[in-house]
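Fold this sequence, please.
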Amino acid sequence: MENIKCIYYVAVLFVHHFMSSLAMPAKNLTTDQSALLQFKTHITSDPYRLLADNWSISNPVCRWVGISCDARHGRVKTLNLSSMELGGTIPPHLGNLSFLVNLDLGDNNFHGHLPNELGQLRRLRGFSIGNNKISGVVPTWIDSLSKIHFLYLYNNSFTSTISHSLFNLTTLEVLSLRGNNIEGSISSEIGKLTNLKIFDMARNHLSGTMPWSSMGNISSLHSLSLTNNSLFGSLPNDICNRLPNLEFLSLSINGLSGQLPASLCDCSKLHTLSLSYNKFTGHIPNAIGNLSKLIHLFLSDNNLAGEIPQEIDNLQSLQFLALGSNSLTAGLLPSSIFNISSLELIYLANSGLFGSLPADICNHLPALQYLYLSRNVISGTIPKTINNCTALEIFDLNENRLTGEIPDEIGNLQSLQYLLLGSNGLTGIIPASIFNISTIAEIELEQNNLSGCLPSSFGQWLPNLVRLTTGGNKLTGTIPNSISNASKLTFLDLSGNSFSGLFPNTFGNLRLLEYLGLAENNLTTESPNAEWSFLSSLTNCRELENLYLDSNPLYGVLPLSIGNISANLQYFRASNCKIKGSLPAEIGNLHSLLVLDISRNDLNGSIPTTVGRLPNLQGLSLRNNNLQGSIPYELCNLENFYELYLSSNNLSGRIQLCLVRLVSLRYLYLDSNKLTFDIPSSLWSLKDILEVNLSSNSLSGSLSSNLQNLHVRVLDLSKNQLSGSIPVTLGHIETLETLSLADNKFEGHIPTTFGTLISLVSLDLSNNSLSGEIPKSLELLSFLKNFNVSLNRLEGEIPTKGPFRNISAQSFLLNHALCGSPNLGVPLCKGGTIKRSKTTTTLVVLAQYLKGYFQMGVMLR
């Protein structure tokens, strides 16, 4: 009986266990479903309704989009929602997917932090959250994922340092954290990751040296990318012995230094070597030709010296070659490089190369797309065979010494996007065929000797043209109205040519235009007395930031519509354009303006007070006009003022006391006006001002002694009616290079402190009433070239040392009783006693007469 009971209980337990085992998957799959539905509630953006329409309880979980289940247990093992443009946050409920092996949410718009509950996914082998907007520190719970093989956290906003515990994940094969904000150094514990194949932490904020010795334990490593960090140190000599499987090595944009180890060429599997933008020195190893599998070679922008190794010719699989911007020995352009038929990119800019381009430059380069040879000394002509590079997209030969004509064959390059031939010696006309390349985005032909006209059809076949520069040539004719058909133009510079005819009104059709340079041509307007109608058309260019019209005989009047030009306008220059009339008050509407230059015109009237409404204005030049009235008080509101040029007008009144508020002011030119009264002593509180010119006014009074804190380089107060003594504190301005106090009424002695003006190049104290001797301390001014103390009452011996060895007699004319070398037109000094001859007495009388005459001239001006 007892045996029967025992069998019964065993049977019951078996059935219960069997039934439980059947019920368990259903219950746990329900748990998975619940977790996924909770995840769905945290999705705030599902543009294609992939989850909204599919993740439903009416569908089996294992058939949901992005879900696959384990055949044995019936549980969710893979969640892959990559590249679905989903947005939202990641909830902790995903941690309940306990059978999950692969989790891929990459290439979406998830934000927020990663929940700690994800650390419960102990079966997880692959985790990707790359290319999202996840923030916070790199989670410490990752070290709980003991079976993880692939960890992709790239292109997010993770911060802090890497936890050392991360290096305990010995199964890890891929660790990608590129494109975050991770700081600190790379721990030597990385050597524990002996199965690691890919280590990518490019574009972070890593610093310190590389732990090469411990990384030598990772012999499985085939990809190492640490580009764009702040690492320093050198490469180890045995790098390839320790990392024999290395295929991809990218350490560009760091602070690495030292020489490139010759053993680097022993990495026989290497297909990418990128070390650009570092501080490497020495030569490029000749053995680099042994890297037969090399496809990408980037060594540009270092301090590498020597010649380009001939052995590079052996790299017959090479597609990208970048050696430019080093300190390579000037040498012939290595023509053999142009025989590597696999090349797609050649970057040899700024490499001191000379010689000419091979006549058959493109015969062996069927795949060439990018050719950068700018800033070299390449001469000769552009070969007509260039049209054989049918795949060419960028042709950059800026800043060389090319001559001859631009070959018409360039027009056959129907994939060309950038044609950069500026700053050469090219001649002839611009081939019309260039303007038929529909793919072209930038054409730079500035600073050559090109002539002829722009074709009348210009712009009709350039739908992608963004930038055109032809400045500094000899182009003539009119500017074609058809230019407005190049509707994507943002940068147009035609300055420094001889274009003539009317200023085109069609520029207003270039709605994306940001830069328009037409300075130094012969453009005109419809009537010399009418308003500029073309300026009204430019109001359609709402993106315009730079407008340069200088040195054109435009005549005419500035229209009121000037205030309607782009709200983004920052630079407006129209100097020497023969503009008449007044400056419209509406110019105060250009709130983004940084520089306004309407100098050397025929403007009259007063300076509009509305200029004070330009909060960002840094430079204002209205010099050489006929402006009247006083300097507006409103200018003192311009806190960012850096330059103020109001010279050569008819401005009157006093210098505004409020100028002291312009603490950013560095250049102040108010000369050649009719300003009166004294110079405000507060002006000298602008201690960082560099140049001050108040000459040729009617300023009076004495000069403030509060000058010792100035850092001024140029100070010109000449041709005024200033009086009193010269402040000794002027001698404390060690930065002073030019000082002119000429044609005033200063009295007293020349301060001996002037001997400490160690930077002084020019000193003019002529036509005053100075007395006493010329201080011997001036002999210490080693940079002094120009010196003038004529027409004063000076006496005593003229200094003979230092700069006075090269100063002529004209500098001492008509003084009281100077003596010294006869070469200076003064009598010899005798025994320390100054004796006046009849000639000297006559000169003194003449000096007084001339002085009175000059001063009278100043008063009558």
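The CA atoms of residues 610 and 704 lie 32 Å apart. Residues 1-27, 832-861 have pLDDT under 50 and may be disordered.
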